[in-house]
Amino acid sequence: MGMSEFYGAADEGEAIATIHRALELGITLFDTSDIYGPFTNERLVGRALAGRRDEAVIATKFGIARGPNGERLGIRGDAEYVHQACDASLERLGVDDIDLYYQHRVDPQTPIEETVGALKELVEAGKVRHIGLSEAAPETIRRAHAVHPITALQTELSLWSRDAENEVVPTIRELGIGFVAYSPLGRGFLSGWIRSQDDLEEGDFRKHHPRFQGENFERNLELVAEVEAIAAEKGVSGGRLALAWVLSRGDDVVPIPGTTRRSHHEENVAALDVELTEDDLDRLEAAFPKGATAGDRYADMSSVNR
Fold it and tell me: Which long-range contacts (CB under 8 A, 24 or more apart) does 284-291 make?
């Protein structure tokens, strides 16, 4: 996402080099969406993976409709739109099929059965291999899974966003669905480099994010400092420790940290080498308990967890 929009200026050359470096390091899952850019990120991923399709698992999303100038057109999950969006994503990615195709947000005006029915048709047509949902509520997940097996549920999960642990994670484990954790570094906050609003570029959406504002920002800095203190004792960065915590949630939890630079990506991958003891986990729980983060995950939560 950040390679094309939302986090300030991007460098396409470095972005493609970062994707290539990911392949070298054994990373296989690449997650994009038609709205990133909008539409440009899928093309970037397609260019970066050209000739290396068999090395990658490509995931993309539909459902948050945008116009060519970036205008927001609402959320759609009707069958006609699902088919149109898939064909457009296939063209932009330059591939014959999509490994994992998510509904980016649930459309409150369209029964989930219609949306997943259309996705099932895409699977049967060979255009999609597996289907997923993003930010869906437990009952919606159950209804969707009854129409066609859901492979993955993507929702925010990190030390500072643990809502999914309450009901969503138990539901998908009951159904045998994998969990893809987006923003596992708390939109970069847990990496430790954000110390003030001035650290964010113009055009960075986090300047207007509830958790990056005023008293919320100061409270969250205190929480990050607690994580960094524990990390320092282990001789690792706070970001590595935060990612290791997400990895510790279970083998069915796959974090997808976003980055635009090779150096940051290499730092993220190093989290795989961090071993957390029960004492480490207990200390992190005490330092950063569920619900401790100040501010909402989104300014408008109305399109989340339907």
Answer: 284/159, 284/227, 284/230, 284/241, 284/245, 287/223, 287/226, 287/227, 287/229, 287/230, 288/159, 288/160, 288/223, 288/226, 288/227, 290/162, 290/165, 291/162
Known catalytic residue: 36? yes
DSSP H helices in the chain: 12-24, 40-49, 79-93, 112-124, 138-147, 168-175, 214-234, 238-247, 262-269, 278-287
The active-site residue out of 36, 81, 102, 182 is: 36
Neighbour count for residue 276 (Cβ, 10 Å): 16
- pTM of this prediction? 0.88
Least confident window among 5-19, 31-45, 103-117, 177-191? 5-19
| pLDDT of 80 higher than 90 | yes
DSSP conformation class of 201: P
Prior bond to 38 cis, omega within 30?
A: yes
Q: Is the pLDDT of residue 302 over 50?
A: no
N-to-C CA span, the chain: 22
**Which whole number is the average pLDDT over 79-99?**
98
* Euclidean distance between CA atoms 17 and 121, whole angstroms: 35
Q: Could you report the per-residue pLDDT of 238-251, keeping only the tens digit for each?
A: 999 999 999 999 99
Structure tokens at 242: 């935060």
